[in-house]
Amino acid sequence: MSRKSNIMANVDMSSVGELITKWCSKCKMHKQIAAFTKNSTTADGLQTWCKSCGAEYRRLNREHERSYRKRRLKHFREYYAQYRKRHLKHLHEYYIKWRRANWLKCQVYDAKYWRTHLNKHRDNNARRRARKLKLPTEKVKRSVVYERDKGICHICGQKVDPNKWHLDHIIPLSKSGTHTYNNVGVSHPQCNNRKAAS
Ligand SMILES: [Zn+2]
Ligand SMILES: [Zn+2]
After folding, report:
1. How far is the CA of 55 from the centre of ligand 1 (A)?
2. What are phi and psi of 7, to 5 degrees?
3. If you measure from the C-alpha of residue 129 to the centroid of ligand 2, how many angstroms do you get, rounded to a whole number?
């Protein structure tokens, strides 16, 4: 570590051309160079405060920093939304390229995504099917139906697993039932399948 900064008054030149210790402007102590974080913007390339002073400062100002980060987050979000708008084509090309380079990772991720979003996928399909059949549709929220039916299967009257239930069309779409709140109900997957089979 050879730093030639003999102009710095707060630096100890214990050996020629080599920084051994540095004076911390916060705790007013001479400390080993290793006790300072690097900072490319200062003349000697080190922070003016030692690491422990910096840590203490951050600890005391954690609340302040948190709110600062939150403010910046909003700013960055807005900035990035604007950026995305301007570079849509470029970003899409980049995304395709990235997917191609990371296809294995993507496969794992996609499989996981569809496993967790299976219900959403299924509901969207039902809505699309109903729309195609020119049947009345509305955006049916699973959480609203679950609340309304109190998690009770409308076929057998038993409670369903909150994480594993089907949104059943009381009059099936194939029999011109609608994809609307008054024609859907909570059901067990088994009850729904049994009904579909009969
Ligand atoms: Zn210090
Ligand atoms: Zn049931």
Report:
1. 10
2. -75, -20
3. 24
Residue 125 to residue 148: CA distance in whole angstroms: 22
Q: How far is the CA of 53 from the centre of ligand 1 (A)?
A: 4
Express each pLDDT in 60-88 by its tens digit: 888 887 888 888 888 888 888 999 999 99
Ligand nearest to the CA of 48: 1
pLDDT tens column, 6-42: 445 555 544 445 678 899 999 999 999 899 998 888 8
Q: Looking at domain 119-197, which of 1.10.30.50, 1.10.260.40, 3.30.200.40, 1.10.10.10 is its CATH number?
A: 1.10.30.50
CA 157 to ligand 2 centroid distance, Å: 6
- State the DSSP string of 123-152: HHHHHHHHHHTT--B----HHHHHHHHTTB
